Amino acid sequence: MGSSDLQAWIIGTIIRLLHQKLNYKKYKLLSNKVGYKFAPRSWYNLDTAVISRKKIKTGNYKTSPPELVVEVDTKADTKKFHNPQDYIHMKTQDLPNSDVKKIVWIFTPNQKI
After folding, report:
1. I need a surface site. Which of 25, 50, 70, 101 has the fewest CB within 10 A?
2. Rounded to an integer, what distance in angstroms lies between the CA atom of residue 82 and that of residue 18?
3. How many C-beta atoms surround the C-beta of residue 113 within 10 A?
4. Residue 35 near residue 61 (C-beta atoms within 8 A)
5. How buried is residue 82: exposed, middle or buried, by Cβ count under 10 Å (0-12/13-18/19+)?
6. 3-state SS assignment for residue 89
């Protein structure tokens, strides 16, 4: 699903800030709905992720946990959830359980981080 103009601008700003601060000898910055497969038949699309250079492979969904994930809003198919917030709660539980070290969520409608 596509991003809103505000969501795209925020992600672009975050990418620019991370690009300035990131040690590229140790880490890579990934963006554009990175596919992250954290368990068999289970994956998420990530807005932005910072991953160790040693974990970069090509051609498939990421299977190594990122160091940092930054999500802006949620553009996911939440039809199978009783409450759309349940998707967010599930994702924020699944990512740390798969050894993602840090997650940042930014919600533009209620201006929460």
Report:
1. 25
2. 35
3. 8
4. yes
5. exposed
6. helix
Q: Which residues of 45-66 are buried (b: 16+ CB within 10 A; e: fewer)?
A: ebbbbbbeeeeeeeeeebebbb
What is the rounded distance in angstroms from the CA atom of residue 22 to the CA atom of residue 26? Answer: 8
Sorted by where each starts, the structural domains of the chain and their CATH numbers stand as: 5-106 (3.90.1570.10)
Tokens of 99: 């050894």
This prediction's pTM? 0.84
* Average of per-residue pLDDT across 97-112: 88
Residues in the chain: 113
**Residue recorded with tokens 């140790």:** 26
pLDDT tier at 22, thresholds 50, 70, 90: very high
Under DSSP, is residue 71 helix (H, G, I), strand (E, B) or coil?
strand
| pLDDT computed for residue 113 by the predictor | 80
Instruction: Confirm if 51 and 32 have CB atoms less than 8 A apart.
Output: no
Report how far residue 53's alpha carbon sits from residue 70's, in angstroms, rounded to the nearest whole number: 18
